[in-house]
Here is the input.
Amino acid sequence: MTSANLLTVEKQGRHRYFKLANNEVAQVIESMASLISVDKDYKKIKSPQLNDFTYARTCYDHLAGKLGVKLTTSLLDNEIIKISGKDYKVTESGQEWFQKIGVDIHTIQQKKRSFAHQCLDWSERKHHIAGALGASLLQLMIEKDWIRKKANSREVFITSAGKIELKNRLNLEI
Here is the structure.
């Protein structure tokens, strides 16, 4: 199906995520789906149930889950970062924003790893920010006690101070 350009595949670590190649393929699938009769035995595929783990967790060394996606969306909406292919770029105003919270963009860019790339969140099916910038942002949030890690888990939770800071700095409601 990928060679026929019906599906595209996004490789991320050991995982492969498949999606429809374009809107025309989606329209054909939707047209075919209209032929299916929906009765009591029909089971709709559901998203993972929202719980503490799917809400806020780490993904390797960066923030993920609903909180990670909301944070990334807010950074985009506030034009602190912008999408560039599969990466994120920090805007001019974004450099000032990161400097104000204590993240040195120039030092992070010198690291021998991806600066900031899109990471597909398995529970939200949307991207969150990964790479050196995502890791630095998570580390800063932990150091400033905006977020705390749950012992022996990838789960994290946002503190009341974190809720206030994210509201004030990004107009992000948690």
